[in-house]
Amino acid sequence: MTVLQIDLETYSSVDLIKSGVYRYVEAPDFEILLFGYAYDDEPVKVVDLTAFEDLPDRVLSDLVNPDVIKTAYNANFERTCISKHFGIKCDPSQWQCTSVWALTLGLPGNLSDVAKVLKLDAQKDMRGKNLIKYFSVPCKPTKTNGKRTRNYPHHDPEKWQQYIEYNLQDVVVEREIRCKLERFPVPKHEWNLWALDQKINDLGVRLDPVLVKQAIACDEQYKSLLIQEAKELTGLDNPNSDTQLKNWLAIQGLETPEGLGKDIVPSLLDQAPNEEVKKMLELRREMGKTSVSKYNAMERSVCEDSRIKGVFQFCGANRTWRWAGRIFQPQNLPQNKIEDLEIARETLRNGDFDLLEMMYGSPLFILSQLIRTALIPSDGCRFIVSDFSAIEARVIAWLADEKWVLDVFKGHGKIYEATAAQMFKVPIETIVKGHENYSLRAKGKVATLACGYSGGPPALIAMGALKSGIPEEDLPGIIKQWRNANPNIVKLWYAAENAAIEAIQSKTTVKLAHGVQYRFEAGILFADLPSGRSLAYVNPRLKYDSKFNKDGIVFDGMEQTKKKWSANRTYGGRLVENLIQAIARDCLAESLTRLDKEGYKIVMHVHDEVVLDVPIGTGSVEHVTAIMGQEIDWAKALPLKAAGFECDFYQKD
């Protein structure tokens, strides 16, 4: 099949990074400047649309030709821009994304880094950043450019020629990357899933603009009151200034050599020499809270149809291929825990900020609680929200053949109670409210959530063990009891690590369980999954680990915190975590596909949850949960179950 490689250079007065491509192309001044392309191995050509050059009829026709695969690095950008500029529908099923392809192999997400890691002969033209800044984004009026707010080609013909060369070189590099990756094709069903992902991103989710506007206004009013109170307390012109505040605190007898960061303020409160300092530090802590950053992101990215689009990145977590969130980051929205959510929501929408504070205390708290509710169904619709129940606990028990856990999920499903009963050797019937053994449920819960990937006390703490009232000295015992109760899961950690090591050492394929196997090929360790896709660990090798006094697995990948390409260590528990989260992701993918085929409009999916925009009078929670609970062909005997509810605005049940 013919492949048409495309790369665009564009202009818009809307900030692409902050607002996303869908809002970007709605700017009145949006336009495609340069259209670089190449068919298969033919020479690269660049069409300068600013010089009134026309796109060749062949290219224009092939943009909607299903027999021609269109490909680009971050194809969502090219698809969206071309659709807007030329007024055509760019069917995602006819496109492939080279960036996604790279991510599936554990490679970096950006073009220049991928080219470097692959050691291509062609490398990205590093002049591009400055050229993009000059021609593709607004500029500030200066003494040299007069009053203009945008640079056109005629303002610097030499730079414009460089921009054309840069566009051409990007096509060269992107094509070379694609050719390198062709040895490791993405399964057809995953390209189909990516096309569905694009459909979901294109549709977006509707925003309640009134609620968002009022939330921002409420925050501004509250912050201004805090600043005024701080001014009156300290006499400072700007109590938000670190320098001014540190000097004032020093005069009051409190030195702050470590600064005034939000992590430092709690310890400073304990050292406050008087009530005025304590009050000021409390104000500082309150002023430092960020409750409206997501509201701001929503407001600046919402499109003309009141929908926010493009908030999901396919294979964004490339160790497992799970989706990542973009723009307002739907994957980490705060949970709502207040009971009268609708009353709070309407109070905010009505602009009654004083009443809101009287009812709930700090506005920052209630604004955080209401973020989810800013997302609403289309007219004449309601949301159906459904998520898998304990999906990771189900998948790990299935992969490890931990029979008693599978029996629980096939039966009553009370995994926290059953785990506690198994750990502490008490009848499950006694782990009920009112019985002294009910306190064991909390231990069963945190153990279920934290121990499956060989986690220690820090993992239990991260899952809320201390907040649940469990003493820290009890944590090692809980871990031991959980491991004794789940011997097959413990065996799975060692089996996975041994299989991966054998595959690396022998450069061979080693089977694990249920269709999972580790395979070494072309300098990459693949973890083949039962769904038919594979996780990738680049340049795997064994290196002595002094912490455990043995050789451990090291591979090259993106270091998650520093976002740079570097060596990463892994081990049995982490390998199993990757497998379980990847298989859970594939279960979600199967449900998304089935729900789409049933005609449901998917507007969001968050972790193991789907959010559907369903016309009133059609569909049902029962139908949706039944679809999600269906057995999957490649995961026979994996007991899936989903629970759901309906709502008039997004929320956590």
Automatic annotation (TrEMBL):
Residue span, DNA-directed DNA polymerase family A palm domain: 368-618
Enzyme class name: transferase
Reactions catalysed, as given in the entry: DNA(n) + a 2'-deoxyribonucleoside 5'-triphosphate = DNA(n+1) + diphosphate
SMART domains assigned to the protein according to its UniProt record, in alphabetical order: POLAc
Entry superkingdom: Bacteria
InterPro entries noted in UniProt: DNA-dir_DNA_pol_A_palm_dom (IPR001098), DNA_polymerase_A (IPR002298)
EC number: 2.7.7.7
Pfam family, one: DNA_pol_A
Keywords: DNA replication
Protein name: DNA-directed DNA polymerase
Species in which this protein is naturally found: Alkaliphilus flagellatus
